[in-house]
Specification:
Elements lengths: L5 H7 L4 E6 L3 H12 L4 E7 L2 H5 L9 E5 L9 H8 L5 E6 L4 H9 L4 E4 L4 H9 L11 H4 L5 H11 L2 H11 L4 H8 L3 H15 L4 H10 L15
Parallel strand pairs: 1-2, 1-3, 3-4, 4-5
Helix pairs in contact: 9-10, 9-11, 9-12, 10-11
């Protein structure tokens, strides 16, 4: 089913996202690596049972995204997040698990996790989380929404096809209610650049006001208001 979006993803992401997988169950880890490796937009270069073991591998230096399973009853469930933050690498962490407690997910985001995917979601949702890794926002879509008729896999193409990564960042800032100056400060670009990007977003989407842009972002799953964490401006 998820092969239907391959032409779009190949064109939008000419360079593959480099992946590392940390999963204690060998069969699950190998199956996930095999599935992701079949896509041109993703390249799995490292696998291991734990994040610590994965980071010890020389090839992990070039990883963009680490995917790891998470059991909520594991007393060391937050240790992996600390390990990744302490190594100070520019790598995003996507966790998957069988729970959907939004308080826990918010806590994980606060401690540095980029995205969370429920195991009940389709592989397509995980792939979209991977391809969204350049965003300044967090990735999480409730299972009921991800598996609905208007799921991410059926709609996200419209947003990605129209907007660049930088335009997506500005759009998310608009959704959060940030001013042009706030967005410029966070993205470390000029206010005038933000204004130009806003105009490009409006021209590409045909939407002229912020309220309708927010609706567009939610409809195309470019912004999730349910669990998205407020961005702390620097």
């Amino acid at each position: 089913m998820w092969y239907s979006n391959l032409p779009l993803r190949k064109n939008q992401f000419p360079r593959p996202v480099i992946i590392g997988i940390a999963e204690t169950h060998v069969l699950y880890r190998q199956a996930l690596a095999l599935s992701l490796s079949s896509l041109e937009s993703v390249k799995v270069i490292a696998e291991s049972a734990t994040i610590c073991a994965l980071l010890d591998k020389p090839e992990s230096e070039s990883v963009n995204v680490i995917i790891s399973g998470l059991e909520i009853n594991d007393p060391n469930c937050y240790q992996m997040v600390r390990t990744l933050s302490l190594c100070k690498r520019k790598v995003k962490l996507i966790l998957y698990g069988c729970f959907e407690d939004e308080k826990i997910i918010r806590h994980l985001f606060k401690h540095g996790v980029y995205g969370f995917v429920n195991k009940c979601s389709s592989l397509d949702v995980l792939l979209d989380a991977i391809l969204f890794f350049n965003s300044k926002s967090h990735f999480y879509i409730p299972t009921y929404q991800a598996n609905s008729d208007c799921s991410l896999s059926s709609n996200i193409g419209n947003g990605y096809r129209k907007l660049s990564n930088r335009e997506l960042d500005v759009l998310i800032g608009i959704c959060k209610g940030f001013s042009n100056k706030d967005i410029a400060d966070f993205l470390k670009i000029g206010v005038r650049t933000v204004e130009k990007l806003r105009e490009k977003i409006k021209n590409k989407t045909g939407i002229k006001n912020s309220a309708e842009l927010i609706k567009y972002a939610i409809k195309n799953h470019l912004y999730c208001p349910y669990t998205d964490m407020p961005i702390k401006l620097i």
